[in-house]
Amino acid sequence: MQFRRSLLALAALATALGTFSVAAPAQTYKPEYKMSLVLGPPTPWGMAGKIWADLVKERTQGRINIKLYPGVSLIQGDQTREFSALRQGVIDMAVGSTINWSPQVKQLNLFSLPFLMPDYAAVDALTQGEVGQEIFAAIDKAGVQPLAWGENGYREVTNSKRAIKSPADLKGMKIRVVGSPIFSDMFTAMGANPTQMSWADAQPALASGAVDGQENPLFLFTVLKMHTVGQKHVTTWGYMADPLVFVVNKEIWASWTPADQAIVRQAAIDAGKEEIALARKGLTEADKPLLKDIAGMGVTVTQLSAAERDAFVKATRPVYTKWKPQIGTALVDKAEKAIAARKQ
Ligand code: X2X
Fold it and tell me: Could you tell which of 95, 152, 219, 223 is best to mutate to test the pocket of ligand 1, judged by most ligand atoms within 8 Å of the CB?
C-alpha cells in the first residue's frame, strides 16, 4: 500500500515536471539579469536602463527580470573594462557609452572626433543611418549583441578657475578625462593638463580640488550640483557627444526565445527614443532653459561665438587627423558625408 502510494506520487510528479518543461521554455532563464550602467536614475542614462528593464518585465510578463547596477558596480567602477566584462558574461546586459567601450571597439572613437558633429541633427545622421549600422556590426563582431541607440550627450567643459573662451584659458588646467586615449590627446592639444580617471574617482577629485575641471553633459552638472564642489564656470563648446548603446551578452541573447529577443530589442528601441528626448530636454528649446538653471546657481555660462569656437577646432585638428585612420578612414569619410547631407 505504502509502496503503491509512493509510485503514484512519483508518477504525478513526473507528469507535473513533464508538463512544466513543455509549457515553460523559460525554465532555463535566469531568475535575474544584471544590467550595468555608469550613471543611475534620475540621470537620462540611468532612466534609459530603468525604462528598458521595466518595459521588458512588463512585456515578458516577468519572464525576463532585470536588475540595475549603476556605478558600473559589477566591475568595481572600472568603466573602461565594461565591454570586456560584457563579452565574458560578468555583465548580462548594459546601456553603455561609446567612450567607455572605445578601447575595445576602435570604431566607437568616431563620436569622440573633436567637432565632427555640430548639432543633434548630425548625431542622428550618424546613429540612425548607415554609419550606425556599421558601428553595430563592429560591436557585434567584437562579441556583444547591439540593439538600440540612446544618448549621454554633448560634453561641455566646466572648471573652478576661470571662464574658458580660448585654448589659452585652458593652459595648464588640470582636467579630469575618461580613460580613453583620444581625450588625453584632445586636451593636451588644447594646452590643458588632462588626468585620466574613472567617474567614481572623478567626483572626490573635483570635491578636493585635485583636478580643476571636467567635461560631461550638463544634466550631470545639475543632478550632482557641481557648483557645490567649486565648478563655477561652464563653457558650451559642443565639441563631441557620446551616444549610448543598449546591448546584451551573446550567450544570454542566444538563451532567449526568438519571441523574447524581439520583445527585448523593441523595448530597447522604445526606451532609447524616450531617453534621447530626456537627454536633450532643456537644451533643444530656443532659450535653453538648462543653461538658465545653471546660471541661476551662480555659475558663469560661456557660449562661444563662431570665431571663438573655431580656435578650438583648429587646436584639435591634428588630433582629428591622427585618429581618422585609427578609426577607419572609410568610416569617417562616410560619417562626414552623412553629416554634410543631414536634414536640419
Ligand atoms: O565618466 C564619464 O565622464 C561618464 C559618466 O560620462 C562616462 O561614463 C562616459
Answer: 152
